[in-house]
Amino acid sequence: MLGLFLLYFIGKAFYELAHEHNKNKWGFAILGVASYYAGTFLGGVILGVLMELGIFTSLYDVPDLALGLITLPIGILACWATYRLLKSNWERVTKSEKSEVLDQDLIQ
Domain locations in the chain? Predict the structure, then answer.
C-alpha cells in the first residue's frame, strides 16, 4: 500500500513538470514510474550478482522484504536523476527560446 503512495507522488511530480513545460503529461508521468522500476530492477540485479559472488551473504538467506527495502533507495535515486535530467534539459531549451525571441525584438 505504501508503494502505491510512492508511485502516486512520483507520477504527480513528473506530471507537473511536463505540464510546466507543455509536454505530454501522462507520458512523462508513466516515464517517472518506469524510471523508478528500472532503478529498482537494476539495483536488484547488481545486488544479486554481488551476493552470488560471495561479497555479501547468500541471496537465499535474505527475505524478499529486505531486498525490496535495499533496492528502494536505488529506485528513488534513478527516478530523481531522470527528473533532474528532464528538468535541466527543458529549462535550457526554454531559455534558448526566450533568448531568440529577445534577439528578434531588438532587431526590429
Answer: 8-98
